[in-house]
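@channel anyone free to eyeball this complex?
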Amino acid sequence: MIKTTGLVKKYGRVAALQGLDLEVPNGAVYGFIGQNGAGKTTTIRILAGLLMPDEGWAELAGRNVVRDPRGVRQVVGYMPDFFGVYDDLRVGEYMLFYASAHGIRGAAAFKLRDDLLELVELGTKREAFVDTLSRGMQQRLCLARSLIHDPAVLLLDEPASGLDPLARVEMREILRELCRMGKTIIISSHILSELADLCTHVGMIREGRLLRQGPLNEMLAGDRVRRFILRCIDQEEEAAGLIGGWPGADVSNTGHGQVEFSLAGDAAEAAALLKEIVGAGTRVTHFAQTEQSLEDTFIQLAREVNGA
Amino acid sequence: MSYTTGKNTGGGFLAGLRNGLSPMLNKEMRSRTRGWRSPVLLTVYLGLMSVGAVGFVWLNMARGSTINPQVGLSFYGILIFGLVLLLSFIAPAVAASSISGERERRTYDLLLSTGASLTGIVLGKWLASVAYLLFLVLAALPLLALVFLFGGVPPSTMLMAVLVCLLTGLGYGALGLCLSAVLKRSQAATIVSLVLVFLLIFGTPITAGIAASNINNNGYAPEYYGAEVQQPGVPWYLFMSPLSALTDAMPGAGEVGMGRGMPLISSIMNELMRQFQPRVNYEYAMKVSATSSVIRGGSGPTTGGVDNVKKPGLMASWPYWVRFALHQGILVIISLLVAVTAITPRKPWHTWRTRKNIL
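replying in thread with the prediction:
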């Protein structure tokens, strides 16, 4: 269980966190969503014991980050968004260095090095110098490094940033494997579709405050606003006008014979709107509810906050 | 895919210390022996020393077919002086990028998130730079051995000179490491540490020289006999310069009227030291219990049986190199403590807040 209570962190006059309350159950994959500067990295660095909060508390696996930062480091594997590597070390040496820094030496360290490199599919690169690895390989190496002391909690700050699509898929597969191993993972990312594929829980942060958090399915199903797409023959402007005037409807895109819009309300409300459009003489060829994405939820939530 | 779980043995101060020391030393030593920097630095270092040594010998040999007995001593003096100066500037330069370099490479957070204690990391970094300095000193030993061709320098004196070199490297290396932790950029840390080292080596003797001239101007010099004799003592800050200790590392250094040893610098330092030592008229000193150490303020009964002469402090009887070692030790301790405090995420006020909340 990871829990933060009233976390406050200021950099000079800028408040990065303004009373953040976070709850992550054991074994969860928690997607941490927020814009740039929302406070994601600050939160993760506090949880990793690398930064002390100005106010509030944070606990990981029963260890307090302020009282026991060393204890926290023993149960946390941390992968920062931007990180460097020791260019003059080989991949195997790099792993052994961190194993030794975690107090793992001798045969156990060698075995662990080989197993982890296999896990991240870098077994063949053991003798290569770290600086000769591609960005994706370095990301995977950093992930292997963060696993070397078998942490119960993994803190991954934008693990897929800068990766090509293939490398992202590989990273996602590795993270799925870690989920199966029962690790509790907090993962921040801008690529929300990937988080939706991976996460069991989601927390949305904005300007240092948590907007909403909970299980992913509840977050998506709990939304009152649904998105629809309507296709018609040559009359999309008239249809958009009708939809725009409907209470609770909001047109987001019009053109090429289709209208995309959101609608607050249930299926009956959608059916009533469709009847109105067809009744007005619009030749409708397609009307369907599109799947609500994490991105939609986040954007909608951000708009609600802005509106408030 | 699976992997065997690692047994985390990190816990407790000693384990944290070991988790920092062992991998840091291992990695730093490995890194320093790879790449082009280390061979280039070693080549430049030994090249400068060799050019100086060969040039000196060549100039002296060119004057005639015989070699003056003083040549060996002068040669030794120049070599040691050069070695100390080189190490004085190499040590902080090497250490000044050790922690800030981790920040610049973006490996700092990764390092701090391990089971290594901050003290272990700092000590590991420092010892790694010290080990490199030891390597440089050892590399210069064949050059120093040339001195024995000329004779006149006992091995014990040369050992002391090597010790002074190492002490210099230890202290100034720790200073560079401290600045590396406090200042975020390696470039800034290197520049500031080099300036500070320059001030410590040359600034302290110059300051002492000014202080000495003030003493003379104030008329402390005892032109009379039997009256209270002023003994301001050698100012403490003078022992932050390895030049003070070098006066001990020269054959016959510090003796009354000696003009041997390291030319110029040694003479200047000896003269400077004398300015602060018991300002006793030599004849008067001979009357009471005079030994040559009265003038130098060194070991031995300096003022026994003379009530009106202020007794020197405890440290006044210590050899200069011991006092230099003491100051370097203090510099090391303070520097390392500051470095650990600078890199810890949990500052003292966090501890205070925690205690306050618990209470």
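from a first look: Chain A has a mean pLDDT of 87.
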